[in-house]
Design brief:
Length: 220
């Protein structure tokens, strides 16, 4: 069967480390990612056989493209996936992009509020923060930020932050520490629910191939 007769499967990827590590896995499966690795300003790239198409999007938009079915598969951090709350199939833990979602602040700040009535949490993840504290039965005020979240406690905007911690160096450099662990994070392969039915064989083949490469990578 010629490659062109298979349905084209579209991957939504965010530029950067998650995409590069996804290309590493796909290349080991024989998928040509040369163009996708060097996109320039292009946002849609295909392998030479036309069997796999890549669209390059912002990380927080990966779940949106997959949910709408314009991408069949996507690679996204568990943190972004939880925050998006979209009804996607999470089919594989890819094992890279590892970090933790944590509550962080000044030591001893886990319960206290500073100068305001309600406990304030600064975060890029308002939905995760809401459900985390709702599960604890704790009323909070969420302050949504889009970067440099560590500034929250440092400058007195919030009592704590909910954010990802990788090396811990940003926290340390700002005199902050992890107060509570929320969950572990790593890159996940997600799949559109309809695509899994309509392109079943081709998608199964890609998922199985990626799963094999992930377990091989874990053994080295
Ligand atoms: C992320 C995150 C932390 C930092 C954690 O920010 O929000 O600030 O990385 O990494 P570390 O534990 O290795 O220091 P990012 O670099 O994405 O920038 P941002 O603050 O602009 O979101």
């Amino acid at each position: 069967m010629r490659e062109m007769e298979k349905p084209t499967v579209t991957f939504a990827l965010s530029k950067g480390r998650l995409a590069e590590q996804t290309f590493d896995l796909l290349e080991r499966m024989g998928v040509d990612c040369t163009d996708a690795r060097n996109p320039g300003r292009r946002l849609v790239l295909e392998d030479k056989a036309g069997a796999v198409r890549f669209i390059l999007v912002k990380p927080s938009d990966v779940p949106t493209y997959v949910d709408h079915g314009v991408a069949d598969l996507g690679v996204v951090g568990k943190d972004t996936l939880m925050e998006a709350g979209r009804p996607l199939y999470e089919v594989l833990d890819l094992g890279f992009g590892r970090c933790r979602l944590c509550i962080a602040g000044y030591p001893g700040q886990v319960n206290a509020t500073v100068g305001h009535a309600t406990f304030r949490v600064a975060t890029k993840y308002p939905n995760i923060a809401r459900s985390y504290y709702a599960a604890k039965g704790r009323a909070i005020e969420i302050i949504e930020l889009h970067g440099s979240v560590e500034l929250g406690p440092v400058i007195g905007l919030s009592d704590v932050i909910l954010d990802i911690v990788e090396s811990g160096s940003t926290l340390r450099a700002n005199g902050l520490t992890v107060l509570e662990d929320v969950c572990d994070v790593s890159a996940r392969l997600v799949c559109n629910r309809v695509s899994l039915k309509t392109k079943r064989d081709r998608i199964r083949e890609l998922i199985d191939g990626l799963e094999r490469q992930v377990s091989l990578a874990a053994q080295t």
